[in-house]
Amino acid sequence: MNIFYSLLLTLTFIMILQKEVYGKGNCFFHPLHFSYAGNRIVYKCVHHDLEYLIGTKFSISDCYRCHCDLSGFFCCGIGINAGKIHIPGGHKVVQHGCDYTIEKHDGDE
Q1: Per-domain residue ranges for the chain?
Q2: Which of 38, 78, 80, 92 is 20 to 30 A distant from 23 in Cα terms?
């Protein structure tokens, strides 16, 4: 039984480390889902009730780039959702879809 718990702890630690690799900026992870098809197990990624096959890479509308692999479902923000933005004093962020610019704020708005 100790071997089982050691293996479980090791796999958990690896998944945490793997998430940290993708943890730069604004990222999230979901584990794989599985279902049975006859006598075999089918693995897939699920996000907002949509199913993705292993090996799928795509972007979702709220500015995230995602991929599904044997570890699970990983998404990282792009553009405006890539992470914290440093805005110098007297400036503002203007969003253009997923992209943005930092513009001088004239104070009248």
Answers
A1: 2-79
A2: 92
Please say whether the structural domain 2-79 has been given the CATH code 2.10.70.10.
yes
Here the tokens at position 3 are 């071997």
Three-state DSSP state, 86: coil
pLDDT confidence bin for 10, thresholds 50/70/90: very low
Contacts 24+ apart (CB under 8 A), 16-25: 18/71, 19/74, 22/74, 22/76, 24/76, 24/83, 25/76, 25/77, 25/82, 25/83
The CB density around residue 81, as the number of other CB atoms within 10 Å, is: 17
Q: What tokens were used for 104?
A: 């001088």
pLDDT, mean of residues 52-74:
90
H-only helix segments in 22-103: none
User: What DSSP character marks residue 12?
Assistant: H
Report residue 109's pLDDT band, with 50, 70 and 90 as the boundaries: low
> Model pTM?
0.62
